[in-house]
Amino acid sequence: MTAGKFEIKAYPEMWKDLDMDVERFDKMRLMLGDIYEKTYLSQKNRPSGMAYFDNMIAEIHGGRIKELLAAKKEGKPVIGTFCVYIPEEIVLAAGGVCVGLCGGSQGSVPDAEKILPRNICPMVKSAFGFKAGRICPYFQAVDLVYGETTCDAKKKTWEILDNMVSTYVMEIPQMKKQTDQDMWLAEVKEFKTKVESLAGKEVMLEELNRAVKTMNNKRKALQRINMLRHTNPTPISGKDVLLIEQIAFYDEPVRFTEKVGELCDELEQRIQDGVAVPGKNAARVMVAGVPMALPNWKLHNLVEGAGAVIVNEESCIGTRYYKDLMDEDGEDIETILQNLTRRYMQIDCSCFTPNNERIDQVLKEYRESDAHGIIHYSLQFCHTYNVEEIRIREACEKENIPYMFIESDYSPEDVGQLQTRVEAFLEQISG
């Protein structure tokens, strides 16, 4: 795709049929296209395999929505989510589609603040505002929203959101004792019953085993690209990998896995040929913390705009989503659900206490990525990550790892201040 000609495709008739505020959404479409062009298409020396992901963005509010609507016509349940705790294997086994919802933009926050308190997480407000303002085709297309109890703002918002779109809530354990694992297994079984009800069919053993392999393959592809970017010098920008991680929540999983695999083949060739982005002496930064829902590219744009490169994301949009796999070829459904429960219990979300696994994981990923320093990124009013940041900082100080904490939101108001801090940090780790 040629720079200067990028456009997020318009589907006004389909959006009208979805009962969207078409006029307002079209303005947001144009703004997003402009931001994407400046943020992504201005990069030099991108891998050719990124063309597929550019096209995914061009069709993110059109072609992909058409696919979801076609699935619904075939009786397949379409379930929207914000969280890596949704057992996607069960949705796939039922023939359904699991898709991320809108929630990383400042544009929908005023819609939410007409109803919700102002002093809660920007991601929760942004997501809620997209539904309240009827400016997200995914919200308008799904049969069900999957909610969870990873934070207080979310679990109370689901009660309000349920008045606008059917919302199913799973209780996420806050500890990892046997009683918590038993509770989570019961929650998984209830979710399976709910999905089967939506699909009008029972999940069978063969379908569940196939779904486990599909998700394992997708996660292996993401592990592979993350491992390749750890090469020094890295063959791909952090912005491009972040984009792929974000698209992972929207795209059809088998197709996505194939395209990531093709890109990885290209990256291996680039490494062999010595093709790097940016240069060999660029500062290498690892980001840890909260998820960065599309189109939240603020921090990556600041870091890489200053000449550094981001080489790892320890977050739900990054390694937390794909670092753990499942055993394959389970002999019966009960065994697979138990394996699934164990796999999801390994996710070290900050909702857990204690959460020593996450501290160890951050240090492990820092060493594996050959980074020069860590930026812990959090959203305002995200209490669990903001408090857990203290322990991450102490661990980094103990290990003499250069470290910086950034707390922000989706507005552009703090960009100048953040740019100054980021540049000072990069000077420190480059020195």
Automatic annotation (TrEMBL):
The keyword Coiled coil applies. InterPro entries: FldB/FldC_alpha/beta, YjiM-like. It comes from the Bacteria. Keywords: Coiled coil. Residues 198-225 form a coiled coil. Belongs to the FldB/FldC dehydratase alpha/beta subunit family. This is Benzoyl-CoA reductase/2-hydroxyglutaryl-CoA dehydratase subunit, BcrC/BadD/HgdB. It comes from Desulfocapsa sulfexigens (strain DSM 10523 / SB164P1).
